[in-house]
Amino acid sequence: MNNHTLADAPVIREPLHAPVAHLVRAGVVEGIHYGSVVVLGADGHVEFQLGDIEAAFYPRSALKPVQAVAMVRAGLPLDGELLSLAAASHSGEERHLDGARRILDLAGLTEADLHNTPDLPYGRSVRDAWIRDGRPASRLAQNCSGKHAAMLYTCRLNGWSLHDYLDPAHPLQRAVAEIAEDLTGQRIAQVTVDGCGAPLFSVSLHGLARAVAGIAASATGTPEARVADAMREHAEMASGADRDVAALMRAVPGLLAKDGFEGVEVAALPDGRVVAVKIADGADRARVPVAAAALARAGVDPSLLTAFSGEALLGGGRRVGAVRAVRALDPLAVGSAA
After folding, report:
1. Phi, then psi, of 319 in degrees rounded to 5
2. Rounded to 10 degrees, what is the CA torsion of 196, 197, 198, 199?
3. What are the pLDDT digits (tens) for 209-244?
4. pTM
5. How many CB atoms lie within 10 A of CB 90?
């Protein structure tokens, strides 16, 4: 636990987002996505910012590495693919469901003990196959089941009650909140309920970046390093086979990346350089190229990021434009038409 003095909670206000991505069709800006971006250097200082990086916001699932660190600090003995799954927004592939069952088995529990919201798999192809097979929504298939199984296992190991493990006043959730404040360096602004039913803590985009940078750059053997190593080495367990965040971790050596609903992404390098992105309208089509452009700003070789530069806009079945990060963010886009 760090002994630093925590900054005040970020202010709850309407974020002052800025344009971060353009939809350019045949040289004309057809649409604009607003959002906020921060790039921190290895020394933790802000090297680039766009929009509002200090307003209170909800990181959604981008906070899962922090939650996983809290559980490891509380004694969770997982490593490797199962620890990656504990920090996952998984696609609902059979390996994800099997991994969640394995964590529950270690705790002597079953799917019936999970309190997350039943859902269909998050991965598009997995969901389509699930529906074709007539399978119903389930707690195990929901994308946070690995996290919930790990929460239950952590409770079991500490002798904490299981039936109320999602209550913000529960010892587990108090521990998570404490670690969230420790790693972000600031007080939590607001507590609400995430889509899966777990407590969700509001911090700033700047705070989220600090937290994940600290996890990615931690010394070997620490709880933070265990989580980072697990996610980097088992990127598909933290997401899915066809997910952009897993592909990004495979493309950039040593990168730790996590996405979150409503257009959130954070990505950190082992030396502490980090980028964090929030897309105001929650669009993934803007999240991906903006995060890639921010990583180029952070010094990542742009040739590693080509596949993430933005999806094509089609007209009559052929490419007529693209979604692109704004020039203010992406130095590589200067002088280009789209």
Report:
1. -70, 125
2. 120
3. 999 999 999 999 999 999 999 999 999 999 999 999
4. 0.94
5. 30
